[in-house]
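[audit] Reproducing an earlier prediction to check determinism. Same input, same settings, fresh worker. If the tokens differ from the archived copy the diff job will pick it up downstream; this log only records the rerun itself.
[audit] input (64 residues):
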Amino acid sequence: MTHVVHALIRLTIWRQRSGQDLIEYSLMAGFVAVSAVAIMPGWATHISQIFSKATSVLSKANGS
């Protein structure tokens, strides 16, 4: 009996398509980010500095 239940659960999971769009958009966003860094390598340093400054400001505000 448990084999039938497990088979039905697997069949239900394979039929669901609701998470497919999210995965596709995530992969596309990752591809765009990697492409942007490859095309504009000078910007990577500036973006890194911006995030470092933001992290520093948030750490000081948090009291750490």
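[audit] rerun output stored. Observation attached for the diff report: The CA atoms of residues 8 and 14 lie 10 Å apart.
[audit] end
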